[in-house]
Amino acid sequence: MRFFRDLPIKWKLTLIILVTSATPLLLSCAAFVFYEFITMRQWMVRELQVQANIIGSNNLGNLTFHSVGLDTREDAAATLKSLQVNEHIIAAGILAQDETVLATYGTPQDLPPLPSEDAHFFERDKLLFFKSIVQDGERIGTIFIQSDLSPLYSRLQQYIGIVVLFVFGSFIVAFVLSAILQRLISKPILHLSGIATQVSEKEDFSMRAKKLHGDEVGDLIDAFNGMLSHIEQRDEELTSLARTLRESQEQLEDYSHNLEKRVEKRTQELQDKNKKLDEALQKVRETQNQIILQEKMASLGALTAGIAHEIKNPLNFVNNFAELSIELTQELRDELLHAHEDGSLGNMIENMQALVDDLERNAKKINEHGKRADSIVRSMLQHSRGRAGNYEMTDINALLAQALNLTYHGMRSQYLSFNIIMETSYDDTIGDVSVIPQDISRVFLNLINNGCFAAYQKQKSGEAPAHFMPKITVQSKNLNNQIEIRIRDNGTGIPDSLREKIFTPFFSTKPPGQGTGLGLSISYDIVVKGHEGALEIDTKEGEFTEFIVRLPKSKDDPANQ
Question: Cα–Cα distances in Å, from 451 out to 49, 172, 214, 268, 410?
Fold first, then answer.
């Protein structure tokens, strides 16, 4: 195909004419040869059928006598000698009804199984013909004739020779005609090609091609001449433009000398601005760090009231039991003085034992609530420092309960009218989980605080039904190798357009001044990056928001690795 594409156009036209004229001629000759081939085969079958009919008629008596036990082989063989007139018959045979060979001619090969009815078979070099001998509607024998295919092949060779000579002569005539006729198309095209070559070599756009005919090639020549006219006009314009450009280049060279000084001055100005931008960037980073610290301090401040309330309870117990212990100590002294004066030692020992027991119980209560206050203070310090802690086996349910309690009291201290329904469902099969307690506590505090705030804001907005009551639900669930915590509120929800931004730093759905937009971002980093867990959100605007936290049950402390 590539060879054809690279041929000159006159040879292409010649080949196209030859191919289009020779193809139908070859197809017609092939159809003619095939028709003669089929006709010759049918003629050979009919010829054998005629000879078989004659032989069958001559052997009706022989087959009848053979069926009653008489030997008629010589007579049957004599009838087959008439086949000598056909030199193409190789072998023949007469078979009785019981398939006994009655007579043969030539040298027949092993016969194939006799067909149940008359049939013929063409093989590669021979024709097998079977004809039934019928008397009174009953088959009494079969005639077999084997003929070579030399007449068929000889006739086929003759036709092929004739076709080859005919096609060759037609091809020569078509070649001569195509060589003459293709000039009508190739001559103007070659003329156009020559003009285009001269224009390219000499760059003389004033030359024009001569239009020889009014056909499509003539239209092509007109278009080519029109293109040369446009190019000639553009060449003149370009020459003028080149002259103008040379003048402009001279002016530009003069300007470039002054431009270098301007570039140096501008470069110095840009360097000064870059230095100022670096300083501003450093201030921005410092400001971001301060904002993050403010978020942590704001979170700490929001919880201070709740923590103070939690500390107040154990301290009240400590103070009350300390006062009670002082009173018991005074009673013990009075008993000792009274026993010394009255001499009633037995009653004194019994009363002293009861007082000592009360003092022991008070001391245990003081110790218990003192440790609780110490634990709350340590948790508060860890939260305020914001430093990375160690992984510890932690009771997640207790951590959730503590965060829920602290958030409630913190909200109560901020908003006097705040009240909320708290529903919890803790899975007791979770057990202790390896986490950084202060970090996970911060996550729970952020999520619960956001839920309480959203539900309270919905109640304050006046858009909720009259019977609406803020509610927050906290659930934990054991999921084999991990745990799941769901924190759901019935607040304002989050629009779909904002869901993708909810964990973005500094993005907040709270009113201005109510949040820094870092709480959820920090919570996401703690859960996903710090604990290799997952933090997801499910929400519907105006109805609910639910945060789903999934944490692995065990995690090695990087500090111990």
Answer: 106, 98, 88, 54, 13
